[in-house]
UniProtKB/TrEMBL annotation:
Top-level taxonomic group: Bacteria
Chain positions covered by the region annotation Disordered: 324-347
A molecular function GO annotation: DNA-binding transcription factor activity
Name by which UniProt lists this protein: AraC family transcriptional regulator
Amino acid sequence: MSIMVRAGGIRAYAAVMQGLGADPGPFLRRHHIAPQALDDDDALLDLGAVAHLLEASSAETGCGDLGLRIAENQDIGILGKLGVIIQSAATGLEAFQIASRYIFVHSQGLALTINPHSEAIEGAVEIVFEIRPPQRQNVDLSLGLAHRFASALLGVHYDLKLVTLPHTPVASPSRYRRFFGAPVTANQERAALHVGAASLRAELRGVNPALRQITEDYLSRHFRVPGDATSTRVRLALRRMLGTPQATMEGIAAMLAIHPRTLHRRLQAEGTGFEAIKESLRQELALQYLRETKVSLGQVSGLLGFPEQSAFTRSSRRWFGKTPSAIRKEARSSQLDTAQAPSSVRD
């Protein structure tokens, strides 16, 4: 089954592409997206197609910051009913909690986790984003939108301390610093915004509890929260444990306080299995590490939980029909082409 995203997520795509001197129509059609679909925020698009669209558009226009540019030209209105609920939150922290629970309504490939204590910044809360597919422009767009929404909601209270990226950016570090107004570190374990804890406790204006209740009741009735699914919980746990001895059926079952046999039955009832989830996660992360970072092949193998690099190579051939080194070589060649594009397009 395809992972879907509301078309509102790339509402500004066409305008940004036109601003770069490119016709968005051929790009959209090449990725099997009808141009008119972008006129309806609630239209559902295949998320994989959207991610590939963004990467191809970035590479072919030489615009390394395409995801950030799209985010710059969008506001919280793209979220529809979810945006209404988020704006009715009493505090910034509550706004992120609402987003964490209901973000699947906007994109099935996005999940938020709130860590009360950032390991990178003292006195900060870490808002972690699991983004699928974890491709550079898709990640930049998601983090960029979250930053824009938080800045608009919290106003002067917003205190972004740090942004961590799980990839090597194509655009210059200064571009990211200007966009986020905070330090940005690349090649990190996860995509996250690290926000001052005090700023998230500040009370927000314009709270409308009645409107929030009406809208939240609507979402609760019409959408099942995917975080309640065992497969989602397993995937999130595996994402943290992959590459450690705990990334087994027994280890994850213990983390979730479920007997392994019970876990197996629940996953089976959801039409999947532990190894299938693990395999899918490995594939996604392999492409992210190979295409988006400079982590060595040996380290990538370890991060994915393979006992030796040769096992990773065999799996890569089975998954993608290519070796890890071939995938990385192709990615670097594409990045070189982007870097050599006219600077007037990139900046």
